[in-house]
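Request:
Um, any thoughts?
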Amino acid sequence: MSNIQTLLSAFDAIAKNPKKQLDDYISQGKKAIGCFPYYVPEELVYASGMVPFGVWGKTGGKINLAKEYFAAFYCTIAQLNLEMGLDGTLDGLSGVIAPSICDTLRPFTQNFRVACPDIPFMFLAHPQNRKKEYGVKFTEQQYNKIKIKLEEISGIKITNDNLNEAIKIYNENRKARRRFIELAGQYPHIITATSRSVVLKSAFFMLKDEHTKMLNELNGLIEASPIEPWKGKKVVTSGIVLDSPSLLKIFDDNQLAIVADDMAHESRAIRVDVQENTNHPMQALAEQFGNQDYDTLLYDPELNKRPGYLVEKVKKSQADGVVIMIMQFCDPEEIEFPSLKKGLEEAGIPYIKIGMDQQMTNFGQAQTSLQAFADVLSTL
């Protein structure tokens, strides 16, 4: 157990202090590229010899300078990303890639471009019709534009060989993270909601081969441990981000184990691997995005399949209920909630909705709600 705790502590240190991790890479002579949420093709950054560095706002952060660019009713992830650009937190980056996958991110990208002119900016437009041939071609064209800019910044040409190598490394990391998520559900007495979060969050701030090496070691140690009966309840989480230590502690205090998730910040973007060892790796990257599905922000021509997907995830993980985290002022999540509610109710699955934003530090209301939810699950 001590070896498991040592590794968890190492992941925790990285997740809690990404600035130190960034500074360490820079001190090694590496350049880093900020990757804003989400579906950024990090393999291109890795293949250019630079470090892909996740920028997902700042839990518990304060918004001051960014208020000049956004109305108050704006997603705090976007506001805090800009805040970090304005207050110098992102100065160590050699560039940023910002997608425009939702109505919030589209104006955010242009605000960031204007507000932070000293940080090289790469705009990434994803197509809504991502599965059709023309959608794949559009995505590939967008990725090629990013590729050219990355080559300018790094001074290294991105070849098919080093891109294929990057794809292999990223597939290995996706596999390791998916396995960890499964193990966390099987060993809730070892992997708490808090430790689960830091392991997954740390991946955004590490070179993926380094993260995979540590994670495979952790997975092996967990697998070698005996499975013990869980005395609490098991839940699936759904939403964009759930990484607040204070909020996660409430899960742990009430013995609510997170056995699976549908979080953008955790499992959504690692569901689908990229085809390896192809003569057209850029097309393979574009096809991977086309193969993504069951996401609040992705167009679904077959109407909304997400309720059924979430229900199946609950059944597969043998969870007792669902905790839906709604980001304040996120229109897609608010619009989608009634369909999730209907699907869960028809399946007889208990659920709770909790509103949050990244500026929150007081979770008294969430504590009351989660405690009551745990009590309800215990009576079923």
